[in-house]
Amino acid sequence: MSTLHMISLPLDLRCFRQWAAMRRLAGDEGRALHHLLTETFGKGAIRPFRLMVARGARTATLYGYTGRDRDSLHRTAQETGAPEALAVVDPARLADKAMPTSWREGRRLAFDVRVRPVRRLRKPAGVFPKGAEVDAFLTAVLRHSPQGRPETAERLAREAVYRGWLAERLEGAARLDGARMVRFQRTRAERGQALEGPDATFHGELTVTDSAAFSRLLAAGVGRHAAYGYGMLLLRPAGG
């Protein structure tokens, strides 16, 4: 496996939104960023990624994982990037660092991750056909009550369901020691068709259980829609 790099890239939000509007991508920020990064640095070059925006800020910082170093990304952008895209993502301001090539098993880390907790149905359920992408909370309700009784939803805690979903996605690479949902909303995503679904941010702590698997998890992202701004594990030292 090649060395994984973490990049950071400042974005001017006004320029980005103008670019997205010009491309008719303003309705889905994740899709707009996906196209912007693809056109500038190549398909799948920076994935997963996360756009961090402070309240009321005019600029934001995009963080991402990539198998390429700064020089390679900068060269691609200069050779093939469109001028209007480079006005939004100035490659000269891109910074990177090499991630560890191995992780000590038993290493405890804190994390921040934005996820889209959905499941693909293996068989029809209620009004949903086989293969539909459905909110993990709703699938839990349907599993406990195929008739979808309202009282079943009341008994199930959305945060607990999503926490279980997150633990499943980490399994084999890390153990989830604890996590709390700090943000939740429902958003629409344009993926050929409009998909409305959950958008949740968790802060928590984990313990690495398999070094190679954990490196693969960082590179692949947690859950679906990793190419659209979800699933990037931002790491920091664990408390205590």
What do these coordinates show?
It holds the Pfam family CRISPR_assoc. The chain has 240 residues and is α+β, with helices and mostly antiparallel strands. It is built from eight helices and ten strands. The chain has two domains: 5-98, Alpha-Beta Plaits (2-Layer Sandwich); 108-119 and 157-237, Alpha-Beta Plaits (2-Layer Sandwich), CATH 3.30.70. The strands form three sheets. It has a four-stranded antiparallel β-sheet with strand order 2-3-1-4. It has a four-stranded antiparallel β-sheet with strand order 8-9-5-10, with helices on one face. The protein has a two-stranded antiparallel sheet with strand order 6-7.
In short:
This protein is of the alpha+beta class and 240 residues long. It has eight helices and ten strands.
Q: What portion of the residues fall into strands of 2 or more residues?
A: 25-35%
Q: Please give the share of residues in helix.
A: 25-40%
Largest sheet: 4 strands, antiparallel
CATH architecture of the largest domain: 2-Layer Sandwich
Global Rg? 19 Å
The number of distinct β-strands equals 10
Query: Biggest sheet, strands in spatial order?
Result: 2-3-1-4
The secondary-structure element order is: EHHEEHHEEEEHHHEEHE
Determine the structural class based on helices, strands and strand pairing: alpha+beta
On the 0-100 scale, what is the average pLDDT?
90
- How many domain regions? 2
Give the number of helices: 8
- Distance from N terminus to C terminus (CA atoms, Å) equals 32 Å
Q: Based on CA inertia axes, which overall geometry fits?
A: globular
Outline the low-pLDDT stretches: none
Q: What is the CATH T-level topology of the largest domain?
A: Alpha-Beta Plaits
Q: What CATH first level of the largest domain would be assigned? A: Alpha Beta
InterPro entries: CRISPR-assoc_prot_Cse3
Protein name: Type I-E CRISPR-associated protein Cas6/Cse3/CasE
Organism: Chelativorans intermedius
